UniProtKB/TrEMBL annotation:
Molecular-function GO term, any one: microtubule motor activity
InterPro entries (UniProt xref): Kinesin-like_fam (IPR027640), Kinesin_motor_CS (IPR019821), Kinesin_motor_dom (IPR001752), Kinesin_motor_dom_sf (IPR036961), P-loop_NTPase (IPR027417)
Family of the protein in this entry: Belongs to the TRAFAC class myosin-kinesin ATPase superfamily. Kinesin family.
Swiss-Prot/TrEMBL keywords: ATP-binding, Cytoplasm, Cytoskeleton, Motor protein, Nucleotide-binding
GO terms of biological process kind: microtubule-based movement
One GO term describing the cellular component: microtubule cytoskeleton
Species of provenance: Chionoecetes opilio
PROSITE patterns: KINESIN_MOTOR_1, KINESIN_MOTOR_2
Pfam families: Kinesin
Superkingdom of source: Eukaryota
Protein name: Kinesin-like protein KIN-14I
Length: 209
């Protein structure tokens, strides 16, 4: 999870450039290297979904072109307590290259805008989830793994970023959600008996958790 002030280099660190790939493409490369190395023992099915949280709303970044209907995305918790997003477009991927291409395509749907602090400032929190279903060729047992990478939008002082109108709304949403996330991390790290997850979820307008 990349967290920090606007313009500090989060997106660059996560995505990188053509000549200097960031954490995401490097992680995808490594993941599929490991899949390949275990090829004789396991068969692996990999898939991914990608979304952004923009102005407190979840948006599917893998949605088919022309489809702007995002109302169906819903955060759900299964019986085992693991959280997933219902309604997100899930892409099956079989190589790091395929996953990286899907990721880059998803990025073109992300909300960005020029501010006084960053010519290409992320206006949303970006989340990509890579899911692996690993079946043992010997026993048939199945293991499930999940890698989640997050490029948060940066905290910003509106007086410095020069945000007005829509950008001001974005900045308020970004700052509010980062503050809620900070409260969760702080409660977890101090092993507090109460962790305010629900505050974050309330701000997402999801009441079903
Ligand atoms: N290590 C680096 N090498 C070269 N350029 C960098 C590096 N880190 C950041 N930059 C450049 O600095 C600028 C700001 O970086 P970036 O967009 O990653 O910031 P950010 O923290 O994601 O900002 P925001 O929160 O506004 O989205 C970009 O033009 C980016 O290309």
């Amino acid at each position: 999870m990349a967290y920090g002030q606007t313009g500090s280099g989060k997106t660059y660190t996560m995505i990188g450039s053509e000549n200097n790939p960031g954490i995401a493409p490097r992680a995808f490369q490594r993941l599929f290297q490991l899949v390949e190395a275990g090829h004789s023992r396991h068969s692996v099915l990999a898939s991914a979904y990608m979304m952004e949280l923009y102005n407190d709303k979840l948006i599917d970044l893998f949605r088919p072109p022309g489809n702007t209907d995002n109302e169906k995305l819903d955060i759900k918790k299964d019986k085992k307590g693991s959280v997933h997003v219902q309604g997100a477009t899930v892409c099956s991927v079989s190589s790091a290259g395929e996953l990286t291409r899907a990721f880059k395509q998803g990025l073109t749907n992300r909300h960005t805008a020029a501010t006084k602090m960053n010519v290409e400032s992320s206006r949303s929190h970006l989340i990509i989830v890579v899911c692996l279903n690993i079946t043992s060729k010997q026993t048939g047992s199945v293991l499930k793994g999940k890698l989640t990478l997050v490029d948060l939008a940066g905290s910003e002082r509106v007086s410095k970023s020069g945000a007005t109108a829509d950008q001001l709304r974005e900045a308020n949403s970004i700052n509010k959600s980062l503050s809620a996330l900070g409260d969760v991390v702080s409660a977890l790290s101090s092993e507090s008996s109460f962790v305010p997850y629900r505050y974050v979820l309330t701000s997402l307008h999801h009441s079903d958790l």
